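Rotation project, supervised by the postdoc (A.L.). Task for the rotation student: set up a whole-complex structure prediction and record inputs and outputs verbatim in this book. Inputs entered:
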Amino acid sequence: MTTVLWLQGGACSGNTMSFLNADEPSVVDLIVDFGLDLLWHPSLSLQMGESAKQLFADCVSGAQPLDILVFEGSVIEGPDGTGRFDMFADRPMKDWVTELAAAANIVVGIGTCATYGGLPAIDPNPSSSTGLQYHRTKKGGFLGAGWTSKAGLPVVNIPGCPAHPDWITQILVALATGRAGDLVLDDLGRPTTFFKTFMHNGCTRNSFFEFKQSTMTFGEGTRTGCLFYEFGCRGPMTHSPCNRILWNRQSSKTRAGMPCLGCTEPEFPVSDLAPGTVFKTQMISGVIPRDMPPGQDHATYLAMTATARISAPAWSKEDMFV
Ligand code: SF4
Ligand code: SF4
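Outputs recorded:
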Protein backbone atom coordinates (compact mmCIF):
# COMPACT_ATOMS: atom_id res chain seq x y z
CA MET A 1 0.00 0.00 0.00
CA THR A 2 1.14 3.55 -0.77
CA THR A 3 0.06 6.02 1.88
CA VAL A 4 -1.22 9.41 0.76
CA LEU A 5 -2.09 12.42 2.88
CA TRP A 6 -3.95 15.27 1.12
CA LEU A 7 -4.01 18.72 2.72
CA GLN A 8 -5.45 22.05 1.58
CA GLY A 9 -4.01 25.53 2.10
CA GLY A 10 -5.40 28.68 0.48
CA ALA A 11 -7.72 26.80 -1.81
CA CYS A 12 -11.21 26.83 -3.34
CA SER A 13 -11.30 22.97 -3.38
CA GLY A 14 -11.40 23.07 -7.19
CA ASN A 15 -8.65 20.47 -7.47
CA THR A 16 -10.47 18.19 -5.06
CA MET A 17 -13.59 18.53 -7.23
CA SER A 18 -11.48 17.72 -10.27
CA PHE A 19 -9.87 14.72 -8.53
CA LEU A 20 -13.32 13.33 -7.65
CA ASN A 21 -14.32 13.58 -11.33
CA ALA A 22 -11.44 11.42 -12.53
CA ASP A 23 -12.31 8.31 -14.49
CA GLU A 24 -9.08 7.15 -16.12
CA PRO A 25 -8.41 5.99 -13.48
CA SER A 26 -11.04 7.01 -10.96
CA VAL A 27 -10.46 7.64 -7.27
CA VAL A 28 -12.02 4.24 -6.51
CA ASP A 29 -9.62 2.61 -9.00
CA LEU A 30 -6.71 4.26 -7.21
CA ILE A 31 -7.73 2.67 -3.94
CA VAL A 32 -9.04 -0.70 -5.13
CA ASP A 33 -6.71 -1.46 -8.05
CA PHE A 34 -3.57 0.58 -7.44
CA GLY A 35 -3.17 0.18 -3.69
CA LEU A 36 -3.47 3.79 -2.60
CA ASP A 37 -4.12 4.13 1.11
CA LEU A 38 -5.69 7.59 1.42
CA LEU A 39 -4.82 8.33 5.03
CA TRP A 40 -6.76 11.57 5.16
CA HIS A 41 -8.44 14.02 2.82
CA PRO A 42 -10.30 17.16 3.97
CA SER A 43 -13.46 16.38 1.97
CA LEU A 44 -13.49 12.59 2.19
CA SER A 45 -12.29 11.55 5.61
CA LEU A 46 -14.39 11.06 8.70
CA GLN A 47 -11.56 11.56 11.16
CA MET A 48 -11.73 14.96 12.85
CA GLY A 49 -10.36 16.85 15.81
CA GLU A 50 -7.86 15.11 18.08
CA SER A 51 -7.77 11.84 16.14
CA ALA A 52 -6.96 13.66 12.88
CA LYS A 53 -4.33 15.73 14.65
CA GLN A 54 -2.78 12.56 16.07
CA LEU A 55 -2.62 11.08 12.57
CA PHE A 56 -0.75 14.14 11.26
CA ALA A 57 1.60 14.03 14.24
CA ASP A 58 2.23 10.30 13.63
CA CYS A 59 3.09 11.09 10.00
CA VAL A 60 5.56 13.72 11.19
CA SER A 61 7.16 11.41 13.76
CA GLY A 62 7.33 8.44 11.39
CA ALA A 63 5.00 6.30 13.52
CA GLN A 64 2.73 6.39 10.45
CA PRO A 65 4.85 6.01 7.29
CA LEU A 66 3.97 8.66 4.70
CA ASP A 67 4.72 7.96 1.06
CA ILE A 68 3.04 10.90 -0.70
CA LEU A 69 2.03 14.29 0.64
CA VAL A 70 -0.43 15.99 -1.71
CA PHE A 71 -0.94 19.69 -1.21
CA GLU A 72 -3.71 21.75 -2.80
CA GLY A 73 -3.90 25.54 -2.48
CA SER A 74 -1.33 28.19 -1.69
CA VAL A 75 0.89 28.15 1.37
CA ILE A 76 -0.25 31.13 3.45
CA GLU A 77 2.54 32.86 5.34
CA GLY A 78 0.66 35.94 6.61
CA PRO A 79 0.30 37.84 8.75
CA ASP A 80 3.93 38.85 9.20
CA GLY A 81 5.30 35.40 8.48
CA THR A 82 3.29 33.69 11.23
CA GLY A 83 0.95 31.74 8.94
CA ARG A 84 -1.89 32.38 11.37
CA PHE A 85 -4.28 33.40 8.59
CA ASP A 86 -4.55 29.64 7.90
CA MET A 87 -4.82 27.68 11.14
CA PHE A 88 -5.26 23.92 10.89
CA ALA A 89 -5.31 21.35 13.67
CA ASP A 90 -4.24 23.94 16.25
CA ARG A 91 -1.29 25.41 14.39
CA PRO A 92 -0.48 27.31 11.22
CA MET A 93 -0.90 25.08 8.18
CA LYS A 94 2.51 26.20 6.94
CA ASP A 95 4.12 24.50 9.97
CA TRP A 96 2.38 21.24 9.13
CA VAL A 97 3.62 21.61 5.55
CA THR A 98 7.22 22.07 6.70
CA GLU A 99 7.17 18.97 8.87
CA LEU A 100 5.04 16.72 6.66
CA ALA A 101 7.06 17.60 3.55
CA ALA A 102 10.19 16.54 5.43
CA ALA A 103 8.52 13.26 6.47
CA ALA A 104 7.05 12.27 3.08
CA ASN A 105 8.92 10.33 0.43
CA ILE A 106 7.39 12.46 -2.31
CA VAL A 107 5.52 15.78 -2.29
CA VAL A 108 3.00 16.60 -5.00
CA GLY A 109 1.59 20.09 -5.56
CA ILE A 110 -1.82 20.03 -7.21
CA GLY A 111 -3.24 23.09 -8.93
CA THR A 112 -1.59 26.40 -9.74
CA CYS A 113 -2.02 27.83 -6.21
CA ALA A 114 0.03 24.98 -4.70
CA THR A 115 2.59 24.94 -7.48
CA TYR A 116 3.18 28.63 -8.23
CA GLY A 117 0.95 30.64 -5.87
CA GLY A 118 -1.84 31.18 -8.43
CA LEU A 119 -4.62 33.68 -7.81
CA PRO A 120 -3.97 34.18 -4.07
CA ALA A 121 -0.37 35.23 -4.78
CA ILE A 122 -1.11 38.09 -7.16
CA ASP A 123 -0.42 41.62 -5.94
CA PRO A 124 -1.16 42.89 -3.36
CA ASN A 125 -1.17 39.33 -1.96
CA PRO A 126 -2.76 40.19 1.40
CA SER A 127 -2.41 36.64 2.77
CA SER A 128 1.30 36.40 1.78
CA SER A 129 0.51 33.32 -0.30
CA THR A 130 3.15 31.42 -2.20
CA GLY A 131 3.59 28.09 -3.97
CA LEU A 132 5.36 25.07 -2.50
CA GLN A 133 8.57 25.53 -4.50
CA TYR A 134 7.90 28.54 -6.72
CA HIS A 135 6.60 32.02 -6.18
CA ARG A 136 5.04 32.74 -9.54
CA THR A 137 7.94 32.37 -12.01
CA LYS A 138 10.67 32.49 -9.39
CA LYS A 139 12.01 29.25 -7.97
CA GLY A 140 12.01 29.16 -4.18
CA GLY A 141 8.50 29.48 -2.87
CA PHE A 142 7.79 28.12 0.59
CA LEU A 143 10.13 25.12 0.69
CA GLY A 144 13.04 26.75 -1.13
CA ALA A 145 14.69 26.32 -4.50
CA GLY A 146 17.03 23.51 -3.49
CA TRP A 147 14.51 21.48 -1.48
CA THR A 148 14.10 17.81 -2.32
CA SER A 149 11.96 15.13 -0.72
CA LYS A 150 13.26 11.96 0.92
CA ALA A 151 13.02 10.26 -2.48
CA GLY A 152 15.36 12.94 -3.89
CA LEU A 153 12.71 14.67 -5.98
CA PRO A 154 11.72 18.33 -6.03
CA VAL A 155 8.01 19.00 -5.59
CA VAL A 156 6.17 17.23 -8.40
CA ASN A 157 4.01 20.02 -9.81
CA ILE A 158 0.66 19.35 -11.45
CA PRO A 159 -0.59 22.87 -12.18
CA GLY A 160 -3.95 23.94 -13.54
CA CYS A 161 -6.91 25.94 -12.32
CA PRO A 162 -7.94 23.25 -11.68
CA ALA A 163 -5.64 20.47 -12.84
CA HIS A 164 -7.37 17.99 -15.16
CA PRO A 165 -8.61 14.92 -13.23
CA ASP A 166 -6.54 12.48 -15.30
CA TRP A 167 -3.31 14.44 -14.81
CA ILE A 168 -3.81 14.03 -11.06
CA THR A 169 -4.78 10.38 -10.90
CA GLN A 170 -2.33 9.19 -13.57
CA ILE A 171 0.62 10.83 -11.81
CA LEU A 172 -0.54 9.38 -8.49
CA VAL A 173 -0.69 5.92 -10.10
CA ALA A 174 2.84 6.32 -11.45
CA LEU A 175 4.10 7.31 -8.01
CA ALA A 176 2.11 4.63 -6.20
CA THR A 177 3.39 1.88 -8.48
CA GLY A 178 7.03 2.75 -7.97
CA ARG A 179 7.58 4.57 -11.25
CA ALA A 180 8.66 7.91 -9.77
CA GLY A 181 12.02 7.39 -11.49
CA ASP A 182 10.27 7.42 -14.88
CA LEU A 183 8.91 10.91 -14.34
CA VAL A 184 10.74 13.55 -16.32
CA LEU A 185 10.11 16.97 -14.86
CA ASP A 186 10.55 20.22 -16.77
CA ASP A 187 12.22 23.34 -15.36
CA LEU A 188 9.02 24.20 -13.51
CA GLY A 189 8.67 20.78 -11.86
CA ARG A 190 5.93 19.59 -14.25
CA PRO A 191 5.87 16.03 -15.65
CA THR A 192 6.71 16.37 -19.34
CA THR A 193 4.29 13.60 -20.22
CA PHE A 194 1.52 16.17 -19.75
CA PHE A 195 3.28 19.51 -19.99
CA LYS A 196 5.69 19.35 -22.94
CA THR A 197 3.17 20.12 -25.66
CA PHE A 198 1.10 23.27 -25.90
CA MET A 199 -2.60 23.72 -25.34
CA HIS A 200 -2.59 24.97 -28.95
CA ASN A 201 -1.59 21.48 -30.21
CA GLY A 202 -4.79 19.73 -31.21
CA CYS A 203 -6.96 22.85 -31.13
CA THR A 204 -9.71 22.69 -33.74
CA ARG A 205 -8.98 26.34 -34.60
CA ASN A 206 -5.40 25.73 -35.76
CA SER A 207 -6.13 26.26 -39.44
CA PHE A 208 -7.58 29.68 -38.59
CA PHE A 209 -4.51 30.50 -36.49
CA GLU A 210 -2.32 29.56 -39.42
CA PHE A 211 -4.08 31.99 -41.77
CA LYS A 212 -4.44 34.68 -39.07
CA GLN A 213 -8.22 34.61 -39.17
CA SER A 214 -9.78 35.82 -35.95
CA THR A 215 -13.06 34.85 -34.41
CA MET A 216 -15.05 37.98 -33.65
CA THR A 217 -17.56 36.48 -31.23
CA PHE A 218 -16.82 35.26 -27.74
CA GLY A 219 -18.20 31.79 -27.07
CA GLU A 220 -18.62 30.86 -30.70
CA GLY A 221 -18.41 27.06 -30.50
CA THR A 222 -15.77 25.27 -32.52
CA ARG A 223 -16.73 27.08 -35.69
CA THR A 224 -14.74 29.91 -37.15
CA GLY A 225 -11.63 31.84 -36.39
CA CYS A 226 -8.92 31.72 -33.78
CA LEU A 227 -9.09 33.34 -30.35
CA PHE A 228 -5.46 34.53 -30.33
CA TYR A 229 -5.90 37.83 -32.14
CA GLU A 230 -8.77 39.44 -30.22
CA PHE A 231 -9.62 37.38 -27.16
CA GLY A 232 -6.21 36.84 -25.60
CA CYS A 233 -5.94 33.06 -26.11
CA ARG A 234 -2.72 31.83 -24.51
CA GLY A 235 -2.87 28.37 -26.09
CA PRO A 236 0.32 28.82 -28.15
CA MET A 237 2.40 29.69 -25.06
CA THR A 238 0.74 27.42 -22.50
CA HIS A 239 2.10 23.96 -21.77
CA SER A 240 -0.88 21.67 -21.21
CA PRO A 241 -2.61 18.84 -23.05
CA CYS A 242 -6.11 20.38 -22.85
CA ASN A 243 -6.75 19.73 -26.56
CA ARG A 244 -5.28 16.21 -26.43
CA ILE A 245 -6.79 14.96 -23.17
CA LEU A 246 -10.20 16.55 -23.39
CA TRP A 247 -12.25 17.74 -20.45
CA ASN A 248 -15.21 15.49 -19.71
CA ARG A 249 -13.77 13.44 -22.59
CA GLN A 250 -15.36 15.80 -25.10
CA SER A 251 -14.26 19.40 -25.06
CA SER A 252 -11.78 22.10 -24.18
CA LYS A 253 -12.00 25.82 -23.59
CA THR A 254 -11.10 26.75 -27.16
CA ARG A 255 -13.49 24.15 -28.59
CA ALA A 256 -16.24 25.87 -26.63
CA GLY A 257 -15.20 29.33 -27.83
CA MET A 258 -13.36 30.42 -24.71
CA PRO A 259 -9.71 31.52 -24.84
CA CYS A 260 -7.12 29.58 -22.90
CA LEU A 261 -6.06 31.67 -19.91
CA GLY A 262 -2.71 29.94 -19.47
CA CYS A 263 -3.58 28.46 -16.10
CA THR A 264 -0.79 25.86 -16.10
CA GLU A 265 1.94 28.49 -16.34
CA PRO A 266 3.54 30.18 -13.31
CA GLU A 267 2.60 33.70 -14.43
CA PHE A 268 -1.11 32.82 -14.26
CA PRO A 269 -3.17 34.93 -13.95
CA VAL A 270 -1.39 37.00 -16.55
CA SER A 271 -1.28 40.76 -15.85
CA ASP A 272 -2.63 40.11 -12.34
CA LEU A 273 -6.20 40.42 -13.67
CA ALA A 274 -5.77 44.17 -14.28
CA PRO A 275 -8.91 45.68 -15.86
CA GLY A 276 -8.91 45.26 -19.63
CA THR A 277 -6.49 42.33 -19.64
CA VAL A 278 -8.92 39.43 -19.33
CA PHE A 279 -10.29 37.91 -22.54
CA LYS A 280 -8.49 40.65 -24.47
CA THR A 281 -5.32 40.34 -26.50
CA GLN A 282 -2.77 42.83 -25.21
CA MET A 283 -1.35 44.74 -28.17
CA ILE A 284 1.73 46.76 -28.98
CA SER A 285 0.93 49.84 -31.07
CA GLY A 286 -2.60 48.51 -31.38
CA VAL A 287 -1.69 45.86 -33.98
CA ILE A 288 0.93 43.39 -32.74
CA PRO A 289 0.06 40.94 -29.94
CA ARG A 290 2.34 41.67 -26.97
CA ASP A 291 2.93 38.01 -26.07
CA MET A 292 4.36 35.77 -28.75
CA PRO A 293 4.46 31.98 -28.93
CA PRO A 294 7.85 30.73 -27.65
CA GLY A 295 10.55 30.97 -30.28
CA GLN A 296 8.86 33.75 -32.23
CA ASP A 297 9.64 37.44 -32.16
CA HIS A 298 7.58 40.38 -33.25
CA ALA A 299 9.47 40.96 -36.52
CA THR A 300 8.99 37.35 -37.66
CA TYR A 301 5.39 37.50 -36.53
CA LEU A 302 4.70 40.59 -38.65
CA ALA A 303 6.26 39.00 -41.75
CA MET A 304 4.34 35.75 -41.24
CA THR A 305 1.08 37.57 -40.62
CA ALA A 306 1.33 39.62 -43.79
CA THR A 307 2.02 36.50 -45.89
CA ALA A 308 -0.66 34.42 -44.17
CA ARG A 309 -3.37 37.04 -44.57
CA ILE A 310 -2.59 37.55 -48.26
CA SER A 311 -2.60 33.82 -48.95
CA ALA A 312 -5.63 32.98 -46.76
CA PRO A 313 -8.04 30.85 -48.81
CA ALA A 314 -11.77 31.56 -48.77
CA TRP A 315 -12.50 28.52 -46.60
CA SER A 316 -10.37 29.93 -43.80
CA LYS A 317 -12.94 32.72 -43.42
CA GLU A 318 -15.94 30.39 -43.36
CA ASP A 319 -17.72 28.12 -40.95
CA MET A 320 -16.44 24.73 -42.10
CA PHE A 321 -18.26 22.58 -39.59
CA VAL A 322 -21.72 22.61 -41.17
S1 SF4 B 1 -7.88 29.40 -30.34
FE1 SF4 B 1 -5.98 29.48 -29.10
S2 SF4 B 1 -5.27 27.36 -28.97
FE2 SF4 B 1 -6.78 27.45 -30.63
S3 SF4 B 1 -5.58 27.79 -32.50
FE3 SF4 B 1 -6.18 29.81 -31.74
S4 SF4 B 1 -4.46 30.44 -30.43
FE4 SF4 B 1 -4.24 28.23 -30.73
S1 SF4 C 1 -7.41 25.54 -21.66
FE1 SF4 C 1 -5.79 26.83 -20.76
S2 SF4 C 1 -6.83 27.91 -19.07
FE2 SF4 C 1 -8.14 26.15 -19.61
S3 SF4 C 1 -7.48 24.45 -18.30
FE3 SF4 C 1 -6.28 24.27 -20.18
S4 SF4 C 1 -4.37 25.38 -19.77
FE4 SF4 C 1 -5.87 26.03 -18.23
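Student's summary: Residues 197-322 form a domain with the Cytochrome-c3 Hydrogenase; Chain A, domain 2 fold (CATH 4.10.480.10).
Supervisor addendum: The CA atoms of residues 1 and 35 lie 5 Å apart.
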